[in-house]
Write a structure and sequence with these properties.
- The chain is an alpha+beta fold.
- 67% of the residues lie in helices and 10% in strands.
- The protein is built from 15 helices and 9 strands.
- Helix 15 links the parallel strand 8 and strand 9.
- The radius of gyration is 31 Å and the shape is elongated.
């Protein structure tokens, strides 16, 4: 009987996985909401089975709701992340958490009614209603933690297990399900005084079915989902996707591109600048920072309009970009009409010469209303001009201020001391 139950559970797992993976595979036609709704509806069945329905297996007495359906749900959440992104998973988890919290609230409110049974002498089981509500909310809270954790584990394991998704899916699922078993059993112990044998049986069942789902996922990735393996991402970025950051903001933060000029934005500078400067200081390598500001830019906007001003900024960005060393120098739009350039491997004297070349290049190639547009540039080099991004910016700003005060369209910086 134990083996027969196990075979039936394996069949149920294969059927469950097959149906859900079809919805995932056809999400472009049906919409990902269909799969999310199915998972939400199944959550009630999982909780009910985990509370009341157990069968004998080779692992011991275990609930299909826990070892088959909940394990499958966690795997499907990870597959949604692999095929879509963490922001999509966030919608599912927050929907379950919010929906179950609302269910619990109304379950308590309904107890205020003098309820009647459908048949004489049969009354509603309010205690069961309370227990189910608590289990659903507790289980969903665990699911939230585990959904975040399983994605972080999946990404972190990529450093050691490579990009193949199925082995990482299995390892991440086993660890997350082990955590779930500890948390959910605590609730079963509190509500039903569940014996310790149930804990070990469910733990063994979850590990076993994590293997089953990993094999099924491997088949899917191999034969039905070409290119399913995702590029590695830093776990911190994944966690940020699962919090309240909107997808568009996350995309801009990851791309780090200024939408007007196409060069890197200030957020990207603050992300990579400090580390780049510190690496050069640690190795005693030269590094210079330039700040370029468009001369009389307000007059260009006032005289020719903001669209012409935008065109000037684009042209200056192009002129600066083509005057820099490819894949070495880094150009950022610092804000408004200011651009910032990081030049690794170049000291103060060479940076002043490079800045002068850039100044002449902009003057020769950029115009507004037929008149040449010029820029002023301040230069600072590490460590003389500062040993941090902020310090270098302050020093370069001082040079820029002097260049502006001395008539604009020139370069200024503190020369290297002997």
């Amino acid at each position: 009987m134990d083996v027969l139950n196990l075979l039936l559970l394996i069949f149920e797992a294969c059927l469950y996985f097959g149906l859900l993976v079809c919805l995932l595979h056809w999400r472009a036609r049906l919409g990902i909401g269909v799969m999310m709704t199915v998972l939400g509806v199944m959550h009630f069945l999982e909780t009910y089975l985990a509370a009341r329905y157990y069968v004998m297996t080779p692992f011991g007495m275990a609930s299909p709701g826990s070892i088959v359906f909940y394990s499958g749900k966690l795997v499907m959440i990870l597959m949604i992340y692999i095929r879509e992104d963490a922001a999509t998973v966030r919608q599912l988890i927050y929907g379950l958490l919010g929906g179950n919290a609302i269910c619990l609230m109304f379950a308590f409110l309904l107890r205020l009614h003098p309820a009647l049974g459908l048949t004489p002498g049969e009354m509603p089981d309010n205690d069961f209603l309370d227990q189910m509500g608590v289990l659903m909310v507790w289980g969903t809270a665990l699911l939230y933690v585990e959904a975040v954790g399983v994605i972080l584990l999946y990404e972190s394991l990529g450093r050691w297990m490579g990009r193949s998704p199925a082995p990482r899916l299995w390892a991440a699922s086993v660890l997350a399900l082990a955590f779930d078993q500890c948390g959910f059993y605590a609730a079963l112990k509190f509500l039903y005084d569940a014996p310790l044998s149930v804990f070990w049986a469910s733990m063994g069942g979850k590990v076993f079915f994590a293997c089953v789902y990993a094999v099924l996922a491997a088949v899917y990735f191999r034969w039905f989902a070409s290119g399913a393996a995702t590029a590695r991402r830093f776990p911190a970025d994944v966690f940020a996707d699962l919090t309240y950051r909107e997808r568009y903001d996350a995309l801009l933060a990851r791309s780090g591109v200024d939408t007007l000029t196409g060069v890197k934005n200030r957020g990207r500078l603050e992300e990579i600048g400090p580390g780049l400067i510190q690496r050069h200081l640690d190795t005693s390598s030269a590094l210079s920072l330039l700040i370029a500001d468009v001369d009389h830019f307000k007059q260009i906007n006032d005289r020719f309009g903001h669209l012409q001003g935008d065109a000037v900024l684009k042209a200056i960005a192009d002129a600066l970009k083509t005057g820099l060393r490819n894949d070495v120098d880094l150009l950022f739009r610092f804000g408004g009409e200011e651009f910032l350039i990081l030049m690794p491997g170049i000291g103060q004297d060479a940076a002043l010469k490079a800045a002068e070349r850039l100044r002449r290049r902009v003057e020769a190639h950029v115009s507004a209303g037929g008149a040449a547009v010029s820029i002023s540039i301040g230069v600072a080099s590490a460590p003389e001009g500062g040993e941090s991004l902020r310090a270098l910016i302050d020093t370069a700003d001082q040079g820029l201020y002097r260049a502006k005060a001395n008539g604009r369209n020139q370069v200024d910086g503190v020369p290297r001391t002997a």
